[in-house]
Design goal:
The protein has helices at 3-24, 80-97, 119-129, 140-149, 192-206; strands at residues 36-44, 50-52, 57-58, 67-73, 105-111, 134-137, 154-155, 168-169, 173-176, 181-186. The chain is an alpha+beta fold and 207 residues long. A hairpin with a 4-residue loop joins strand 2 (50-52) and strand 3. Helix 2 (80-97) packs across helix 5 (192-206). It is globular and about 50 Å long.
Amino acid sequence: MTIKKFVPVTLALIAIAAGVFFARQQPDNHQAELSGFAFPSPKALTDIALIDQNNATITAESFKEKWTFIYVGYTFCPDACPMTLTIMDQLYSTLADNNELTEDVAMMLVSVDPERDTTERLKSYVAHFNETFTGATGTPDNLSSFANQVSAVYSVPEDRSDANYLVDHSSTIILIDPNAAVHAIFTPPQAAEKLSDDFRLLRKRFS
């Protein structure tokens, strides 16, 4: 990673770490039980303009009336993305096994590599993990806006002459609540059973 690219990514990661710290300082008796943190005052998504694997538009309204687990990454990712999507599939199965999987639960990969991740590729990629998963992407500006709102960090290299270029990105799972607000962020290491416990607690407190 070059110094030019390292500095903004590092600063962004420091900003997120600070946000995590201050969120955890809020009075919340359940905070320590989570594999991450829940926002005391979830912030609603605004001005979202993404597109899913079926070329349908995704807006802030698209997230309402359901819980959505989101991972921000890309399909050419060699390790973190397939590992996390596998965990999300395990979470999906765990919820189903416990009779807690309803139509108001969704899983989504948001690709920040629109140059290579076409809707066709996204459709094939997410289906490999789970046919119910949604794959989404958008323009660079729209993706940047979305990532900022969900506290995700990524950096696409300026030199993309090598077709196998890598995209640096954070590895959190973001939970959007039925009010289309960023409700919680789950940090690594992540495990399906713990995530299901966390989700059960958050959904109970929300209702």
